[in-house]
């Protein structure tokens, strides 16, 4: 991990990279393999690296989120991270999990089927990682510092990128555009990753359909659309058939944002798909057609049309009976302004975020080591299983006193092998909007969703317990809810958080400790000898 100079949008700046590359190198493995990644911090700031969507069975030690499973790797230090793949197959990604460094410190993970086995779809002629990102002209840590100091919203990015390139709609970017050459009649597997910090995106290729065959490293029933919707943290495997007239065609990504009063980068990043042998104009004639930037119906229709493949060769196991249900409100909040603070939130407040009205505060040492070595005073175990304040969560007007959360470092202890259902309930506090919720250490089944307030008596009657999509990150719709299920069969300390960096910074996160009563002696792999010191 080191600084490298990159020129974009007419300006040059130094960014944090891995091996000098932006995006970073692609890791290629086969299903079920274990690898070791040696991370050398040759930058100026602390860093940690997370293997997003890799379940790491019995090995929370090298999962990566700072102050959750490890303290950050300090400048000049090294950490050897064991990455254990299990049932994942398809596309995942890795990224920094400290401050906002993941803006440039990220890359793809391609997980091929085991040798001797095949895909449940025709083998494509080529794999093409497509990483959607964000670019700021300013140093990203300066953007973060200004954001935290202001108490308001962060500065919008200056561009989106496809594989690190903004595309020719931006200044000085004609030659900084991702290009994909295709041969007519061939099929390409686009491995799409949303590495953006703060926006969900529409993505598509002009005049070409995309057929989704996998999400978050789990196979799906084929779903063919002219665009996809993908949130920060999510991955999507899509087949593209080069079946149009030879020519040049735009691929593009643009933001989907439906919150009122939410600042966002309303620009479009482009790449160019060009047929081999085509000698005509190099600039494509038109962009792909997307819905309006705030079209909730289009976004939810796509997101919840996905289904697990669940075939004879690729079965799934949806939990039919649960041990425990946790209902969690996920909210944007405010704190009152103190005399010494800058307060650019609504009505002179400071913006915050919470899960079940608790705005998470990072501890001084990581929670995993505190739990494993029984260090007292680092965290509490009183994260509630139900919202502490009951009201109409999606009402148009919510009293101000309900918008102020408590601060704390509270975790939820879960019994090993229990069957969990977690309901994420969006609220209209301060600003209702979508939330991409990510759970470390597990893939989960998305068994239900809806708008309004979750009804514990009625809504479970309509759950899909046959072929729900299996994910590690799911978009909770604005003023709506999502129910997920998973078996807590992976002991350890696992992070749960919104994958919008602004909300993570504000405290929309908590921790699940999966505890068998034997965590310290039998269930978890012993800690590495080179754990970063706190």
Automatic annotation (TrEMBL):
UniProt keyword Transport present: no
Subcellular locations according to the entry: Secreted, Extracellular space, Apoplast
Which cofactors is this protein said to need?
Answer: Cu cation
Broadest EC class assigned to this enzyme: oxidoreductase
> Which keywords does this Swiss-Prot/TrEMBL entry list?
Apoplast, Copper, Glycoprotein, Lignin degradation, Metal-binding, Oxidoreductase, Repeat, Secreted
Q: Which residues form the Plastocyanin-like domain?
A: 2-114, 127-277, 388-516
Question: The organism sits in which domain of life?
Answer: Eukaryota
**Catalytic activity field:** 4 hydroquinone + O2 = 4 benzosemiquinone + 2 H2O
- Please name the InterPro entries in this protein's record: Cu-oxidase-like_N (IPR011707), Cu-oxidase_2nd (IPR001117), Cu-oxidase_C (IPR011706), Cu-oxidase_fam (IPR045087), Cu_oxidase_CS (IPR033138), Cu_oxidase_Cu_BS (IPR002355), Cupredoxin (IPR008972), CuRO_1_LCC (IPR034288)
Q: What is its EC number?
A: 1.10.3.2
Q: Where are the transmembrane segments?
A: none
Name the family the entry cites: Belongs to the multicopper oxidase family.
Q: What is the protein name for this chain?
A: laccase
């Amino acid at each position: 991990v080191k600084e490298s100079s990159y020129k974009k949008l007419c300006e040059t700046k130094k960014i944090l990279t891995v091996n000098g590359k932006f995006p970073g190198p692609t890791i290629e493995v086969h299903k079920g393999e274990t690898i070791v990644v040696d991370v050398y911090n040759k930058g100026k700031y602390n860093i940690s690296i997370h293997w997003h969507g890799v379940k790491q069975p019995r090995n929370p030690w090298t999962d990566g989120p700072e102050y959750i499973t490890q303290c950050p790797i300090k400048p000049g230090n090294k950490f050897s991270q064991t990455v254990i793949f299990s049932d994942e197959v398809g596309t995942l990604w890795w990224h920094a999990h400290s401050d906002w460094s993941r803006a440039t410190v990220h890359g793809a993970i391609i997980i091929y089927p085991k040798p001797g086995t095949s895909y449940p779809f025709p083998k494509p002629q080529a794999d093409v990682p497509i990483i959607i990102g964000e670019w700021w002209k300013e140093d990203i840590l300066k953007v973060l510092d200004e954001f935290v100091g202001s108490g308001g919203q962060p500065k919008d990015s200056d561009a989106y990128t496809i594989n690190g390139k903004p595309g020719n709609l931006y200044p000085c970017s004609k030659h900084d555009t991702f290009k994909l050459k295709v041969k007519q009649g061939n099929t390409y597997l686009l491995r799409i990753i949303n590495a953006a910090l703060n926006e969900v995106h529409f993505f598509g290729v002009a005049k070409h359909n995309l057929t989704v065959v996998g999400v978050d490293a789990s196979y799906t029933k084929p779903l063919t659309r002219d665009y996809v919707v993908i949130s920060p943290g999510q991955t999507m495997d899509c087949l593209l058939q080069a079946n149009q007239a030879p020519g040049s065609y735009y691929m593009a990504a643009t933001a989907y944002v439906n919150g009122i009063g939410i600042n966002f980068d309303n620009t479009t990043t482009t790449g160019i798909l060009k047929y081999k042998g085509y000698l005509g104009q190099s600039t494509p004639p038109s962009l792909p057609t997307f819905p309006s930037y705030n079209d909730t119906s289009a976004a939810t229709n796509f997101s919840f049309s996905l289904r697990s493949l669940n075939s004879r060769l690729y079965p799934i196991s949806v939990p039919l009976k649960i041990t425990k249900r946790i209902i969690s409100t996920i909210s944007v909040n405010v704190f009152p302004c103190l005399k010494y603070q800058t307060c650019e939130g609504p009505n002179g407040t400071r913006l915050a975020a919470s899960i079940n009205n608790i705005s998470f505060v990072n501890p001084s040492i990581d929670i995993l080591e505190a739990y494993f070595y029984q260090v007292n005073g680092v965290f509490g175990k009183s994260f509630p299983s139900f919202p502490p304040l009951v009201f109409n969560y999606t009402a148009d007007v919510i009293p101000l006193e309900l918008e102020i959360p408590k601060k704390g470092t509270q975790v939820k202890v879960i019994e090993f092998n229990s069957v969990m259902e977690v309901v994420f309930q969006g609220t209209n506090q301060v600003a209702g909007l979508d939330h991409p919720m990510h759970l470390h250490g597990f893939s989960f089944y998305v068994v239900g969703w809806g708008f309004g307030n979750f009804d514990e008596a009625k809504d479970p009657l309509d759950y899909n317990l046959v072929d729900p999509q299996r994910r590690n990150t799911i978009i909770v719709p604005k003023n709506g809810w999502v129910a997920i299920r998973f078996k807590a069969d992976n002991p350890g300390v696992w992070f749960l958080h919104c994958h919008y960096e602004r909300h993570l910074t504000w405290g929309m996160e908590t921790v699940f400790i999966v505890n068998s009563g034997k965590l310290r002696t039998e269930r978890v792999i012993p800690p590495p000898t080179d754990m970063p010191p706190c």
